[in-house]
Amino acid sequence: MRVLAMAAAVLVAVSTTLVSPSPAHAYPQVPRAEVIARAKSWLTAGPGGGPVPYSQTSRFQEYRQDCSGYVSMAARIDAPGKITIDLADRFHSKSISMAELRWGDIIVNTEGTTADGRHVVIFDKWADPYKTAYHAYEQRSTHGTTYRVLRYGVSTTDNYWPRRLLNVTG
């Protein structure tokens, strides 16, 4: 009986280990200040000193020039970059509340298709003391890299959710 109990305990330990979540990849730890500095760099790294143009197929500094490629670049996640859904999974980020947002966190919408609906931005700071809008870095179609005031995620009905990338520190 004791042997059977011991075998059952070993089986449970092994099966738990096999199904426990583990990082898909060990990305380098990146301080928040570096995430913001890297995000800011694309504002003037494009043609003629302007923003890096948006593209889902082209690369700049080895990263896709779309929103998730841009966030991957800023957070030093493998080039050419993860897709939006990957950035929002448990292997790359964790859910936080809007009140917990800190510079370098992301706000992401994983609904819809890649070209229609999915989007991710990098939070910088609140735009007002009431936390009804914030400054963010984003890579968006027709505009390329921008820094602007946004309201994504402020309402829980718009399918945008705040997340903290697991490799961002500070």
Can you describe what's shown?
This protein has 170 residues and is of the alpha+beta class. It has 4 helices and 10 strands, in the order αβαββααβββββββ. The strands form 3 sheets. Strands 4-9-5-6-7-8 form a 6-stranded antiparallel beta sheet. The protein has a two-stranded parallel sheet with strand order 1-10. Strands 2-3 form a two-stranded antiparallel ribbon. It is globular.
Class computed from helices, strands and strand pairing: alpha+beta
Query: What percentage of residues falls in helices of 4 or more residues?
Result: 10-25%
Q: Tell me the Rg in angstroms.
A: 19 Å
- Main sheet summary: 6 strands, antiparallel
Strand arrangement across the biggest beta sheet: 4-9-5-6-7-8
Report the average pLDDT across residues.
Answer: 87
User: How would you classify the quaternary structure?
Assistant: single chain
In DSSP terms, counting alpha (H) and pi (I) runs of 4 or more, how many helices? 4
Q: Which range does the strand content fall in?
A: 25-35%
Secondary structure tally: strands = 10
What general outline do the C-alpha atoms trace? globular
Enumerate the spans where pLDDT stays under 50 for 5 or more consecutive residues.
3-22
Straight-line N-to-C gap: 51 Å
Instruction: Write the element-wise H/E pattern from the N-terminal end onward.
Output: HEHEEHHEEEEEEE
